Amino acid sequence: MEIMLQEENNTLKIQNEQLSAKLRRAEIFTSRAQEVVSAIRASTGSKKSIAFDEEQRLRKMLKLEEEKARLAQQLLRLSTNVLKAAGIEKSVSDVNPSIAEEALEELKNWINTLEMEQEDLIFKVCM
Fold it and tell me: Whole-model pTM above 0.70?
């Protein structure tokens, strides 16, 4: 039992040393990358340090723009499906929400008309 613990301990020590070496290499790489970025920023006249607040603001803006693009795609798909349901064939470039809204209104009117005709027929059958 004690031998197994010693073997496991030795294995863990070796893994720890390997991870420490990887960490040191990563720190060296990161340091070099920061130096390169600083040199590039200096050559372009930018600030030498990275403005993390600005970076976070830009990341938020990027996420918002990605969300807007995703929602626009969904709206386009929805509009296209509404037009298909209304029997209107348009190219994707001609599809827009206002046309889809008009088509949806026409569909609602058509459904209301059919419901009224159905009620009339039911009334006539029952008489």
Answer: no
